[in-house]
Amino acid sequence: MANGDWKQKVSEARRRAVEWMRGRRGADDIVYACIYLAFILGVINIFAHWAWMSWLALALLVYGLFRIQSKNLAARSRENESFLKAIGPLRPWLQNPKAAATEAKQFKHVKCSHCGQKVRVPRGKGRLRVTCPKCREKFEVKS
Ligand SMILES: [Zn+2]
């Protein structure tokens, strides 16, 4: 087969994939969570050999595929929003684990004792006197 044929086939396949994706959401945060979880279950199951765990991993992947190909964008979008709300502080770890790890290493998150505002302080600087950016309350934290 000539090189040109192969290139043409690839671009044809890409064009078809783009066409198929039109009007669909593609992978969202729930899909990534399903894939991660299925992968983790798969790794655990290398040692555990539980049939139900393989089925659960498979079900997660099937559900992920269902979400990728779904054309009901409004419903999927709603589900994704409530999912992100539900996982709360885990959100950055799912969306960008590397950045979340760097962030956790360099900064500590504390809550203002007065208004509950979250404040980010650098780690390893001893005792810090913090002024809350929201209510101007001053408090000390161990960084
Ligand atoms: Zn405050």
What's a concise summary of this model?
By secondary structure, the chain is of the alpha+beta class. The protein has helices at 3-21, 29-48, 51-69, 73-87, 91-95, 97-106, and strands spanning 107-111, 118-122, 127-131, 138-142. The strands form 2 sheets. The chain has a two-stranded antiparallel sheet with strand order 1-2.
Order of strands in the sheet with the most strands?
A: 1-2
Overall pLDDT confidence: 92
Quick one: biggest sheet?
2 strands, antiparallel
Q: What general outline do the C-alpha atoms trace?
A: elongated
- Structural category is alpha+beta
Question: Could you tell me how far the N terminus lies from the C terminus, measured between alpha carbons in angstroms?
Answer: 64 Å
Share of β-strand residues: 5-15%
What is the domain total for the residues?
Answer: 2
- Ligands: zinc ion
Task: Spell out the helices and strands N to C.
Answer: HHHHHHEEEE
